[in-house]
């Protein structure tokens, strides 16, 4: 009991020091209430002070709450001060460009970042209102920013927020101009953040320059230039931004491109940080697109599209053979977009990640196009090939697509939606659909069936134990075939890859959520043009593979 009392006293003292330096009266009151609840509130207080949010290659992301292990004005002030100090130490010039979504705290965090930048003598350019992440990524390139900050938690739960950092050309180089940071920049920024002294001594300047909507118009103009100006436009689209910030920009882009304005799910059309109609604001989650499908049915839509809340991801929902609807997997949309660009004659490097389908590799090999495979994340995809050939397309299976790297060097759910619409409208003129094109690709390259085993945990030790288990007791066979290749990417990345002649499994912890993920793929040849039978065999094989991997991981 004495040790427990000592621990509580230590955490209480940490909390008092934090309160003395916290610039936000709201979070001070919140933390004071937790302190007043001791000793019953000791576990919660300990969690808030378990350690600071670590600034990594995804920046910061965490729950909105007082204390160092949360997103709040104090943490953001410290992060911004560390970032501008690091930029100055690199001798980098130019403005800091700042964007934000509509989550709780996003605008306040963006405005504080601008004040910290101007207080350090660096110009700050603030986007005019809540906007999609790809608009910020575009603005960093378009405005010649030294760096960019996007305040967003993407598709995380409503109680979260986050802080992404992009670099401009001066520090990011040709491949990383307008892209998210990669090592060693993340470690340098983290060290600078930890060196920030008392927040009361961080100078705060003017609010910075609030940009006009001409920036958004410029983004939309460039986005519509991604597709053929003279292509077919007869397409009825249903759309949802899932209470996020994508609707105004996406509908403007569709209108400028000449498509009929998509119908928008009414009760999900406006930004709402509570995300009231979905249990989890991610289009991949069960039930998230139910309202979208209802709208598509009622309007006779040819296609249904969803963005995640910051509109950097794009989900595509199509009619299936039973006159119902199904969401295409990210791998399916990825190869459809790649094939479409190839058919348009777009040459250059095509890239994806180690957890995505191997079909893109097969397509590039057959068509004589350069291909590269990277670690997970667009920060790596946009740097694929190391400059050996210009990147023209990249995707990851988690619904992220970059169809125009010179426009936005990151995933972009707006230009992806436009390009999907262009493809679907062209196929419609032939009496065909996106699923028909997928069948055509399967007939040529075989069925590449992908799926995912995803386990969300409350205790991160479950993930560590599972990764240790698969390394210690690696399966000798999968689906009755010998495992002929085992790759362990430690220490570079916590990833294990297993392969047989016809199957592949990639196992890794999620980088943004408390999840363990196993990415499954089975390649099934198509015999005598019978794609559907091959699909059935592949689906059965993947279901069996899921069970084998779950057992091997102890899940």
UniProtKB/TrEMBL annotation:
<feature type="domain" description="Alpha-D-phosphohexomutase alpha/beta/alpha">
    <location>
        <begin position="54"/>
        <end position="168"/>
    </location>
</feature>
<keyword id="KW-0460">Magnesium</keyword>
<dbReference type="Pfam" id="PF02879">
    <property type="entry name" value="PGM_PMM_II"/>
</dbReference>
<dbReference type="InterPro" id="IPR036900">
    <property type="entry name" value="A-D-PHexomutase_C_sf"/>
</dbReference>
<comment type="similarity">
    <text>Belongs to the phosphohexose mutase family.</text>
</comment>
<dbReference type="InterPro" id="IPR005843">
    <property type="entry name" value="A-D-PHexomutase_C"/>
</dbReference>
<keyword id="KW-0597">Phosphoprotein</keyword>
<dbReference type="Pfam" id="PF02880">
    <property type="entry name" value="PGM_PMM_III"/>
</dbReference>
<dbReference type="InterPro" id="IPR005846">
    <property type="entry name" value="A-D-PHexomutase_a/b/a-III"/>
</dbReference>
<protein>
    <submittedName>
        <fullName>Phospho-sugar mutase</fullName>
    </submittedName>
</protein>
<feature type="domain" description="Alpha-D-phosphohexomutase C-terminal">
    <location>
        <begin position="466"/>
        <end position="523"/>
    </location>
</feature>
<dbReference type="InterPro" id="IPR005841">
    <property type="entry name" value="Alpha-D-phosphohexomutase_SF"/>
</dbReference>
<keyword id="KW-0479">Metal-binding</keyword>
<dbReference type="Pfam" id="PF02878">
    <property type="entry name" value="PGM_PMM_I"/>
</dbReference>
<keyword id="KW-0413">Isomerase</keyword>
<dbReference type="Pfam" id="PF00408">
    <property type="entry name" value="PGM_PMM_IV"/>
</dbReference>
<dbReference type="InterPro" id="IPR005844">
    <property type="entry name" value="A-D-PHexomutase_a/b/a-I"/>
</dbReference>
<feature type="domain" description="Alpha-D-phosphohexomutase alpha/beta/alpha">
    <location>
        <begin position="218"/>
        <end position="321"/>
    </location>
</feature>
<dbReference type="InterPro" id="IPR005845">
    <property type="entry name" value="A-D-PHexomutase_a/b/a-II"/>
</dbReference>
<dbReference type="InterPro" id="IPR016055">
    <property type="entry name" value="A-D-PHexomutase_a/b/a-I/II/III"/>
</dbReference>
<feature type="domain" description="Alpha-D-phosphohexomutase alpha/beta/alpha">
    <location>
        <begin position="330"/>
        <end position="443"/>
    </location>
</feature>
<dbReference type="InterPro" id="IPR016066">
    <property type="entry name" value="A-D-PHexomutase_CS"/>
</dbReference>
